[in-house]
Design a protein that fits this description.
Layout lengths: L25 H15 L6 E3 L9 E4 L6 E12 L2 E7 L2 E10 L2 E7 L5 E7 L1 H12 L9 E5 L1
Antiparallel strand pairs: 1-2, 2-3, 3-6, 4-5, 5-8, 6-7
């Protein structure tokens, strides 16, 4: 595994759409492992999208305290409720704001073995799924902030 450089606001790659992963192979698994190691090596990281480490692939890692979740080609298939969620981003250090997010989301994806999985998250996990999946479409949380924290 290797630490990867986290791209920061102003880097054009953060605004590009990621491409679907066609085959989940050892290279994809290595990227997911590197992303997890990079996320765990940060102070406040609960999730990381591949574009944040310079890779335009639909890959996400998340750990909001319930264990590491690796997602390939994730898509939200169901969203319920609403929460005013405080968010920050590893690519936008020291900026925080409130975003309206679903309180519960169900995500369909492939796991690191290429098997289809369905995962459901509520509260902070739902927020994190939405935040990271937004990254895959070039959307940043600052695009959705309703109130900044000074």
């Amino acid at each position: 595994m290797a630490l990867r450089q986290i791209r920061l606001l102003g880097d054009d790659i953060l605004r590009k759409k990621c491409k679907k992963v066609e085959v989940v192979d050892d290279r994809v698994r290595q990227i997911l492992n590197d992303m997890a190691e990079t996320m765990y090596n940060t102070e406040n990281g609960g999730g990381l999208a591949a574009c944040q480490v310079g890779i335009l692939k639909k890959l996400v890692v998340v750990d909001m305290g319930q264990g590491l979740i690796k997602l390939v080609n994730p898509q939200i298939i169901k969203a319920e409720g609403e929460q005013k969620a405080l968010e920050g981003c590893l690519s936008i250090p020291n900026r925080w704001g409130y975003v309206l997010r679903p309180n519960k989301v169900t995500v369909k994806a492939l796991n690191e073995n290429g098997e289809e999985i369905i995962v459901t998250g509520t509260g902070d996990l739902a927020k994190c799924f939405c935040h990271e999946i937004d990254h895959l479409d070039g959307v940043l949380f600052i695009d959705k902030v309703i109130e900044y924290i000074e």
